[in-house]
Amino acid sequence: MIIRHGDRTPDTTKPEIGHPSVDYKCGVAGIVHRSETWGAHRPNLWTGLKDFPPLSPVGPGNIRNGGLRLHPGSVNMTCGVGDLTARGFLQLHNLGTLLQMSYGQLFPSMDMTTDIHVQSTDFRRTIRSAGAFLLGFVPNVPKIREMVKIHIEPGGLSQAPPNGVPLTYKPCRNLRNVRETENEKRGYYAREKDFHWMYDKVVDLFNLSVTPAIQWTDLFDKFVTRGCHALDSHSILPCTKDGVCIDCRLGRGMFEYADWSMASRYPPNSSLLALTPFLKHSLLEPIERIIAGDQSSLKYRIMLTFTHDSVLNRIFKALGLPLKEWVPYASRFSFELWKGAPFMQTPTYYLRVLFNGKIVTPFSNGDEIVNFSKFKENVVPVDLWAYNKLCGI
């Protein structure tokens, strides 16, 4: 299962525009959730966050944006840049609880030390999302921090597969150039210029200095995070200190552009190139080992990856699935391995793919499941020689 982190604060401090009604909270203690106050009525959940071992011997142990604690303080604790908010924490906790109801009955005697593998990018928001999810997903909450480790790897794509899976594909150094070339051919940048009037108007309205430090991504990150965090769209439009606010037409246009941009910026070929290491190490090869019965090197029955929207967007492209809008917070791809009829001499294995609970199995001619061999043929990563050549390795 591949899961996006929950609701977060803006990932940039520039430009310095804001609105007092946007009140981000990043602590957990004191949150009133379903008529319960975290840390008071359910101390076992609060204890489960303390001393949670986020690091694994497999990973380098580096955490982007500084240190981390999964015991994030009171509900009024201030937020950092790109932090998981209290709302995001609850999104992932609720998702874990939901999936426990869906999958828990399949694994009634799950051993959390051997049956589950968790990996995350090195961002605090993804690591905290993993912790929140596990608190909802694992029935034996008091022991979770003693039994489950979050394997951490740097970068937007996790490469911390289970032990025994060799890392044959290295990160692609030429990926940015490949993506820009492909986007140029698709006319992506020509479409981007159609929205430049919004950028100019925002810069003029807020009297911002036009410098390389103020990019499209800086402005859109401010708008999109507010748009996802607040329920009232009229309360999230940034305003100047003298009360001049972005008008609704401009705000709506920026949301629409950001939505289109996030869904379209990763063209299919570069998406497959970027996903090759992840698909090979964390999806295809572990499944092949399970099918082969290689329980000596791979005993996990559930593998969880906590990552970012860019990864889920690329998975849409790699699977040939339509993607018309930005991937929401706490979205997830589920890859379920099914075994054919037991009476067959050589059992056949199938995959069922779901996105946010909806069946989207690719290469299946509309069926719910697809033969794993057929799936692999269509999603097979670029062979190692071609990959190294394209990536300049």
UniProtKB/TrEMBL annotation:
<dbReference type="InterPro" id="IPR029033">
    <property type="entry name" value="His_PPase_superfam"/>
</dbReference>
<dbReference type="Pfam" id="PF00328">
    <property type="entry name" value="His_Phos_2"/>
</dbReference>
<comment type="similarity">
    <text>Belongs to the histidine acid phosphatase family.</text>
</comment>
<dbReference type="GO" id="GO:0016791">
    <property type="term" value="F:phosphatase activity"/>
</dbReference>
<dbReference type="InterPro" id="IPR050645">
    <property type="entry name" value="Histidine_acid_phosphatase"/>
</dbReference>
<dbReference type="InterPro" id="IPR000560">
    <property type="entry name" value="His_Pase_clade-2"/>
</dbReference>
<protein>
    <recommendedName>
        <fullName>2-phosphoxylose phosphatase 1</fullName>
    </recommendedName>
</protein>
<keyword id="KW-0378">Hydrolase</keyword>
